[in-house]
Amino acid sequence: MRRVPFLATALALALAVTTLATAPAHAFTPPNIPSLSTATAELNALTVDVERNAGTYDRALFPHWITISGTCNTRETVLKRDGSGVVTNSGCAATAGQWYSPYDGATWTAASDVDIDHMVPLAEAWRSGAHAWTTSRRQAFANDLGNPQLWAVTDNVNQAKGDDDPALWKPPLTSFWCTYAKAYIDVKYEWSLTVDSAEKSALSSMLGRC
């Protein structure tokens, strides 16, 4: 039997340990992120228009988080969906687990450090057409689990984003810009929201990193 040299074995083991130490602990993402070609076609299909009705926005017009199943609301559902080893109590609150934030590459073990971000912010949606929706449609948008709209991310990164579109804010982790743009475009497309010219230009530039 051919024996593997000790040095080669040691190097392979060291490489494996290093890979495990540096790789994201968990990297689940929301569903239905489109391909580059699909996202490009969707971006080209979006209506370009100025934003409107900013002064009449009220977060309460987008009811969330709603009950999804049993005692679990939308936030708790996303924490379970996108976390690793998530443990919940009888009320569905996460008491343990691990969450990888793709916006900044950080990993968290306390649910309190994690926000559920609306990829297309609620105020941005309002300015881009949601002001004309019914409350029921706005509720569906704010709790959308079927499209890449809800992301588990570092809380202060989400707070830094606020209600900015990609012309004003981008994730700190530049390697995520491609995925961010594809997801953002898809949500706008699926919900028939408009983009302004600066926003479209920023999204096109981010797709260029794919």
From TrEMBL:
Range of residues in the leader sequence:
1-27
- What region holds the GmrSD restriction endonucleases C-terminal domain? 111-204
Q: Which UniProt keywords apply?
A: Signal
Is Ribosomal protein found in the keyword set?
Answer: no
**Name recorded for this polypeptide:** GmrSD restriction endonucleases C-terminal domain-containing protein
Species classification: Bacteria, Bacillati, Actinomycetota, Actinomycetes, Streptosporangiales
